Structure formats: C-alpha cells, structure tokens
C-alpha cells in the first residue's frame, strides 16, 4: 500500500507562463503565509478545480435522475414560477465549496 501511495504522489516538473497580475497574486499568497511556494499555490488551485468538476458531474447526474423521474411521474401542480425558484435554489448549492 505504501508503494501505491508513493506512485500516486509522484511529481512531474512543469513550466507555466502567467500574467504579471497572476504572478503578483501568487506571490501575495506566499507572502501572507497561505502557501510555502508557487508550486503549492498551483497544486491547490488544480485540486479545487478537480473537486468542482467532480461536484458538477454529480449535480448533473442528480438533475438527470430528477428529470427522468419527473418524466415518468407525469405533470406537476407547480406554477412555472415555483419551478424556476426551486431550480435556482438547487443551483445555489453547486456554488458552495
């Protein structure tokens, strides 16, 4: 198991180009103590994006399941406005970390 963890944590060196503004933000993150170096900043951003993508995929699957259920169960008594409010309330959950 330790061998599998070591293989999963292998690092690959990358060279990236950022704007002056992005570079300033990265340096500010390090100066405030949030991160020890530039690589930590970039890895954290990548992890956050991966998590958002996983959550989005999960939300899409949930919406698909609800649509299938709705199609199979027939019509609703909700007004279009009520339906829209419910959809907007559900979408707000996707934006939470």
Secondary structure elements and their pairing?
Layout: H1 2-8, H2 20-31, H3 38-73, H4 80-94
Task: Provide a descriptive summary of the structure in words.
By secondary structure, the chain is mainly α. It has one domain (29-97). Helix content is 72%, strand content 0%. The chain has helices at residues 2-8, 20-31, 38-73, 80-94. The relative contact order is 0.05. The model has no long low-confidence stretch (mean pLDDT 85).
String of helices and strands = HHHH
Number of strands: 0
From the N-terminal CA to the C-terminal CA, the straight-line distance is 30 Å
Q: How many alpha or pi helices?
A: 4
Helix proportion range: over 70%
**Structural class label:** mainly alpha
Biggest beta-sheet profile: none
Q: How many whole angstroms does the radius of gyration measure?
A: 21 Å
- The stretches of 5 or more residues where confidence is low (pLDDT under 50) are none
Shape: elongated
Mean residue pLDDT: 85
Quaternary structure classification: single chain
Whole-number total of structural domains: 1
**In percent, how much strand structure appears in the residues?**
under 5%
List keywords for this structure.
97 residues, mainly alpha
Summarize the structure.
The chain is mostly helical. It has helices at residues 2-8, 20-31, 38-73, 80-94. The relative contact order is 0.05.
């Amino acid at each position: 198991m330790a061998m599998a963890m070591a293989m999963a944590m292998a690092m690959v060196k990358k060279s990236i180009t950022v704007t002056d503004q992005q570079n300033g933000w990265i340096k500010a993150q390090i100066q405030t103590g949030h991160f020890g170096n530039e690589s930590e900043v970039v890895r954290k951003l990548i992890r956050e994006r991966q998590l958002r993508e996983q959550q989005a995929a999960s939300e899409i699957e949930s919406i698909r399941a609800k649509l299938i259920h709705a199609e199979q169960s027939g019509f609703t008594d909700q007004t279009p406005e009520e339906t829209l409010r419910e959809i907007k309330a559900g979408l707000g959950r996707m934006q939470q970390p």
